Amino acid sequence: MFEKSTWIRLPRNVVVGHDVLAETVSVVDDLHLEGRPLLVTSPTPRKLAAEPIAADFEERGIEPAIVTVEEASFEAVESVIDAAEEVDASYLIGVGGGKAIDIAKMATDHLDTGFLSVPTAASHDGIVSNRGSVPDGNTRHSVAAEPPLAVVADTGILANAPWELTTAGCADIISNYTAVMDWRLAHRLKNVEYSEYAAALAEMTAEILVGNADMIRPGLEESAWIVTKALMSSGVAMSIASSSRPASGAEHLFSHQLDRLAPGAALHGHQVGVGSIMTAYLHEGESGIWTEIRDALASIDAPTTAADLGIDDETVIEALTTCHAIRDRYTILGDGMDERAAREVAVKTGVIG
Ligand SMILES: NC(=O)C1=CN([C@@H]2O[C@H](COP(=O)(O)OP(=O)(O)OC[C@H]3O[C@@H](n4cnc5c(N)ncnc54)[C@H](OP(=O)(O)O)[C@@H]3O)[C@@H](O)[C@H]2O)C=CC1
Ligand SMILES: O=C(CO)COP(=O)(O)O
Ligand SMILES: [Zn+2]
């Protein structure tokens, strides 16, 4: 008897383009959301986007509340939950980079309300996904969460964000190549649940981005459009899989370990990009796509070496040889890399000197 079932949760509206920030209230109307919104933002995006959105609500006679978070932490999530209860918020709107959006996402999970995602930086694929990532003790990887009810991605704001944030988002997408390689390996060796649709979508997202890498340049809204669509697709792949597997393999384990060993040294996407160069080499060897991944990252000024990340060689080796143990997720790293082997792959790929 066929008993399989799945529940794929996706945003109802994804609005991307020039000046769409001004459509946020209309997006709320289209969701038939009533009551008072709580805007969750951080200092820079507050002026850029949260306050203009608040003004639009006020013009409609709705008095939004705004809470500003300074760092990604569970204390910040708690403060947002308290603020939402205090103002009796009907729904949340995360306005900012990954920090503001993920804190809104995690708080929403607790409050059982919906939230909108208004990214001001195309810095990683959490802007539309059903995954939330707030550092929790030693845990740095994402946990299951509700995807946003809607996403409003203003390409003008995204194009004017610091270029390094956009290249981090690009690198996070490019790393889908190796994430899917690990997912397929885990499925073949360990019978890990696998979705060809989610894998194909995640891989295609990386292929399209790499194929358009030469069109991705600072300050161009067209570039922001390409990157944002890729981040959306990657987030949808995670929602289809109900897992971050389509977008997170050994390259992410490496990055999460760097978050512990060298906190704040580099952006998430940049770390996973460098990790992807090395894990692609582990999967396919000298003649594999590791050089294409490295060259695609280099073509958009994303880091390709430890030095580019501002992380010393020994920390890279320590992360590479220990990161297999931080999560129950089978990857090409198996039960852990030998130090000499780690040094060899890091040197051969040019990641360390
Ligand atoms: N859910 C998921 O799948 C994932 C979630 N994450 C999470 O996302 C966070 C990392 O995302 P990231 O976006 O790098 O972090 P932030 O939200 O901290 O943004 C990075 C920096 O960019 C600034 N900023 C944001 N938008 C703009 C803009 N338009 N113009 C100028 N500056 C801007 C922020 O300002 P300010 O300092 O004022 O905030 C901050 O200094 C982490 O908390 C991580 O845990 C990471 C990967 C995956
Ligand atoms: O960053 C992510 C996907 O790009 C989320 O992956 P993790 O589950 O490894 O945190
Ligand atoms: Zn990522």
From TrEMBL:
Entry binding sites for substrate: 125, 172, 256
Molecular function GO labels: glycerol-1-phosphate dehydrogenase [NAD(P)+] activity; metal ion binding
GO CC terms, sorted: cytoplasm
Pathways per UniProt: Membrane lipid metabolism; glycerophospholipid metabolism
UniProt-annotated location(s): Cytoplasm
Cofactor note: Binds 1 zinc ion per subunit.
Amino-acid positions noted as binding NAD(+) in the UniProt annotation, renumbered to this chain: 98-102, 120-123, 129
Binding-site residues for Zn(2+), renumbered to this chain: 172, 252, 268
Residues involved in glycerol binding: 125, 172, 252, 268
Coiled coil: none
BP-aspect Gene Ontology terms: glycerophospholipid metabolic process; phospholipid biosynthetic process
Any single Pfam family the record assigns to this protein: Fe-ADH_2
EC number: 1.1.1.261
Keywords carried by this UniProt record: Cytoplasm, Lipid biosynthesis, Lipid metabolism, Metal-binding, NAD, NADP, Oxidoreductase, Phospholipid biosynthesis, Phospholipid metabolism, Zinc
Catalytic reaction equation(s): sn-glycerol 1-phosphate + NADP(+) = dihydroxyacetone phosphate + NADPH + H(+); sn-glycerol 1-phosphate + NAD(+) = dihydroxyacetone phosphate + NADH + H(+)
InterPro entries listed in its UniProt record: G1P_dehydrogenase_arc, G1PDH, Glycerol_DH
Record-stated family: Belongs to the glycerol-1-phosphate dehydrogenase family.
Matches recorded under HAMAP family: G1P_dehydrogenase_A (MF_00497_A)
Record's function text: Catalyzes the NAD(P)H-dependent reduction of dihydroxyacetonephosphate (DHAP or glycerone phosphate) to glycerol 1-phosphate (G1P). The G1P thus generated is used as the glycerophosphate backbone of phospholipids in the cellular membranes of Archaea.
Protein name: Glycerol-1-phosphate dehydrogenase [NAD(P)+]
Native source organism of the sequence: Natronosalvus rutilus
Annotated gene: egsA
